[in-house]
Design goal:
GTP binding; binds magnesium ion; six-stranded mixed β-sheet; 598 residues; globular; 15 helices; binds guanosine-5'-diphosphate
Length: 598
């Protein structure tokens, strides 16, 4: 088809508002995927993704559509991940489009994620088509939600589409709107090749499969390409379109979306946002907007069994082939032995990697509490960045510590404003703004230290608003604060993975709460175990775990003690992950204790 009949669009929505269901319906209605082939939520094909009901990895689908005007169109849907951790990928997918469907659940309304994505789409000058989904629900209030979209986003909703992705209502209207409202790509076939990478994944047979949108020029099978940021060159083996299964073609032109393989060894060599050009006739400038996604959250991963260290290394290597944002380097801890310090885009990314290591690679891991990157200015005038609290330089060498701050935007029903302000204040938040929206809903903006957000802020926000509030955050820079390192000593030995960096004014409270929590979490042993929290050599809180008494043991077991004990031990081993630190067995939960403080 001519470029004037191509439409590239994405769907932006808050989690659970129906993006995947709508995408399925579009694929079905256009006959791209037959009903028989249609698995539920075709686009979310990662197991983990489906279980959690979130979209992690974006993909694309090309649909052929005959419009009501009798013309044939190609509609490329570029899916976006639905989580703040992946907002850079969202921005690159949007950069590959000319329009977006804004899907809002008509029984809920605008949420924080909706807003964040709409702002990204507006930054890229996309044509935005509002779709009110789930109008089949008895609680749907399309007029109220239209008002919200107009008020908060400033988008005209007079021609918003009322839809039910589930019942198939409004689907043909949506397809027609895409044809009529989303502009066609610019016709720049004559210019030197520039194609934007918006996704990639590793395939063990073909190497990295790159998904891209041709912005200018033409790309042919067999072409020698250059990636402008990584400066690497490859020969294209395979070129094709996604319908949504891969179908090979000989060439792709400006405006089209496709995939290629070129014996690329790891996704880090073909990063999202990089520009593909021809090695023989390169473009002068790469496409704008490339940055390397930087990890913001770090933690230590240690095998419970020291023999599994090499297995862990191999598993991380394999995951890294497919995940350019994952960072890791070997770490040796006096308490934990050998492991890795790993960097992630955010907490969800961290959880996904941990879960995959355990499920797909069958590893038993101890994960230490998440930390952020601190900037430490030293007295000699130099600066260091540290991602591991136990590496904080001595106070005598430090001039100041700076920590990353984020702006957090929350949307909540009015009645939870109080509890959410209290939460934000208790996390050292700085109040910025509050706006009343329609029908008793409110936006609340705070600036917060990232370290206070990566702990359990999200869970707390959800529980204090009974699930009704939503949030979004983005980095706004570094700020100096009086921070100190809080060490935890178990049985007299400092346990480095339990060290945290805290605000001076909170150190006493955190130390006390931490040792109390550890007392609950660490099982009793045959001997008494002292627990201490200390800043330098000053102990700020202490507790102890009393020794087990033999008679207590006998009383509670009764009967054949040794048999029952063995049984119990066996059960405990299956359930509890323990790490021996000195002579003390410390369970996994203890390493996360800092996240469980009230
Ligand atoms: P996503 O997170 O935005 O991809 O949302 P999903 O497409 O996974 O949908 C979330 C939930 O809403 C699922 O249980 C869907 O079955 C349901 N859902 C999606 N669209 C509709 C709709 O139009 N009506 C109703 N009643 N439920 C819907
Ligand atoms: Mg989804």
């Amino acid at each position: 088809v001519p470029v004037s009949n191509i439409r590239n669009f994405s769907i932006i929505a808050h989690i659970d508002h129906g993006k995947s269901t709508l995408a399925d319906r579009l694929l079905q209605t256009t006959g791209t995927v037959s009903n028989r082939e249609m698995k539920e939520q075709f686009l979310d094909n990662m197991e983990l993704e489906r279980e959690r009901g979130i979209t992690i990895k974006l993909q694309a689908a090309r649909m052929n559509y005959r419009g009501e005007d009798g013309q044939d169109y190609v509609l490329n849907l570029i899916d976006t991940p639905g989580h703040v951790d992946f907002s850079y990928e969202v921005s690159r997918s949007l950069a590959a489009c000319e329009g977006a469907l804004l899907v809002v659940d008509a029984s809920q309304g605008v949420e924080a994620q909706t807003l964040a994505n709409v702002y990204l789409a507006l930054e890229h000058n996309l044509e935005i088509i509002p779709v009110l989904n789930k109008i089949d629900l008895p609680g749907a209030e399309p007029d109220r939600v239209k008002g919200e979209i107009e008020e908060i986003i400033g988008l005209d909703c007079s021609s918003a589409i009322l839809a039910s992705a589930k019942e198939g209502i409004g689907i043909s209207e949506i397809l027609e709107s895409i044809v009529h409202l989303v502009p066609p790509p610019r016709d720049t076939v004559q210019e030197p090749l520039r194609a934007l990478i918006f996704d990639s994944y590793y395939d063990s047979y073909r190497g990295v499969i790159v998904y891209f949108r041709v912005m200018d020029g033409t790309l042919k099978k067999g072409d020698r390409i250059r990636l402008m940021a990584s400066r690497k060159e490859y020969q294209i083996d395979e070129l094709g379109v996604l319908s949504p299964n891969q179908i090979q073609v000989d060439e792709l032109h400006a405006g089209e979306v496709g995939y290629l393989s070129a014996a690329i060894k790891a996704v880090a060599d073909a990063r999202v946002g990089d520009t593909i050009t021809l090695a023989t006739a390169p473009a002068k400038e790469p496409l704008p907007g490339y940055t390397e996604a930087k990890p913001m959250v770090f933690c230590g991963l240690f095998p419970t069994d020291a023999d599994e260290f090499e297995d862990l290394r191999e598993a991380l290597e394999k995951l890294r082939l497919n995940d350019a944002a994952l960072q890791y380097e070997p770490e040796t801890s006096s308490a934990m032995g050998f492991g890795f310090r790993c960097g992630f885009l955010g907490l969800l990314h961290m959880e996904i990697v941990q879960e995959r290591l355990e499920r797909e690679y069958d590893l038993d891991l101890i994960t230490t509490a998440p930390s952020v990157i601190y900037k430490v200015r030293l007295l000699d005038g130099s600066e260091v960045y540290i991602d591991n609290p136990s590496h904080l330089p001595d106070p005598q060498k430090r001039e100041a510590i700076e920590e990353p701050y984020v702006q957090v935007d929350m949307i909540t029903p009015e009645e939870f404003v109080g509890p959410l302000m209290e939460l934000s204040q208790s996390r050292r938040g700085v109040f910025k703004d509050m706006k009343y929206l329609t029908q008793g809903r409110t936006t609340l903006t705070y600036e917060l230290p990232l370290a206070e957000v990566v702990t359990d802020f999200f869970d707390q926000m959800k529980s204090r608003s009974r699930g009704y509030a939503s949030m979004e955050y983005h980095l706004i820079g570094y700020r100096e604060n009086p921070l100190v390192k809080l060490d935890i000593l178990i049985n007299g030995d400092p346990v480095d993975p339990l060290a945290t960096i805290v605000h001076r004014d909170k150190a006493y409270y955190v130390g006390k709460a931490l040792v109390e929590k550890l007392k609950e979490l660490i099982p009793r042993h045959q001997f008494k175990i002292p627990l201490q929290a200390a800043i330098g050599s000053r102990v700020v809180a202490s507790e102890h775990i009393p020794a087990l008494r033999k008679d207590v043991l006998a009383k509670c077991y009764g009967g054949d003690i040794s048999r029952k004990k063995k049984l119990l031990q066996k059960q405990a081993k299956g359930k509890k992950r323990l790490k021996a630190i000195g002579t003390v067995d410390v369970p996994q939960e203890a390493f996360m204790a800092v996240l469980k403080l009230q």
